[in-house]
Write a structure and sequence with these properties.
Layout: E1 3-7, E2 10-14, H1 19-30, H2 32-35, H3 47-58, E3 64-71, E4 74-83, H4 86-94, E5 103-110, H5 120-134, E6 140-143, H6 150-158, E7 162-168, E8 175-182
Parallel strand pairs: 5-6
Antiparallel strand pairs: 1-2, 2-3, 3-4, 4-5, 6-8, 7-8
Length: about 180
């Protein structure tokens, strides 16, 4: 397996171009509690759409990198990192923060509800941030959880991220909290 890291029971591996991984992601994105926070992904709940949208990420063709989170060997979530978006760059600049040369954004989704609230997200974000910062992938990492996604905000805070600002930065007018962690 192509694992980026393993911490106790949590491991993160590259998402594979396999029907199994696509089915996992389709199920997770289809979950009612997930769809409400992932407005950009709301259309991608059919398997063929998920394959079309995520295949370039698996092949690392579009500057987005896709990963599967496992807990005790069971696939429980999805994580990605990608070049910072213009919206996040603007949010940084508006708060006297400049994006560094290697500024990356990070997203996480614990798709199996029975694995939420177990610390898996915090452990995964902490491990991925350390991996990215220590391996020269990023000098700065930002995240943009929805303002009403308190669980995600708390998870990022426990992983060393701090709130920078809240702003309406999505296409559908939803507010997101810009969170940031810098290399020490």
């Amino acid at each position: 397996m192509d694992y980026l890291f393993k911490n106790s029971s949590v491991s993160v591996r590259k998402m594979r171009d396999s029907i199994c991984d696509y089915v996992f992601l389709t199920e997770w994105l289809s979950a009612p509690g997930i769809q409400s926070y992932n407005s950009d992904e709301a259309d991608a709940v059919e398997l063929d759409k998920v394959i079309k949208q995520y295949n370039p990420r698996i092949k690392e063709e579009d500057g987005e990198y896709a990963f599967i989170i496992e807990y005790d060997g069971i696939a429980v979530g999805y994580m990605q990192y990608y070049d910072i978006t213009d919206e996040l760059k603007s949010a940084l600049k508006d708060n006297s923060e400049e994006a560094m040369d290697k500024t990356m954004a990070i997203d996480i989704l614990i798709g199996k509800s029975e694995y939420q609230n177990m610390g898996i997200g915090t452990e995964t974000i902490t491990g991925m941030a350390e991996y990215m910062l220590n391996n020269g992938i990023a000098d700065m990492i930002v995240a943009g959880p929805s303002e009403d996604n308190l669980r995600a905000i708390r998870c990022f805070e426990k992983s060393g991220f701090s709130k920078l600002r809240t702003a309406t930065i999505t296409k559908d007018g939803r507010s997101k909290v810009t969170m940031i962690v810098k290399k020490k």
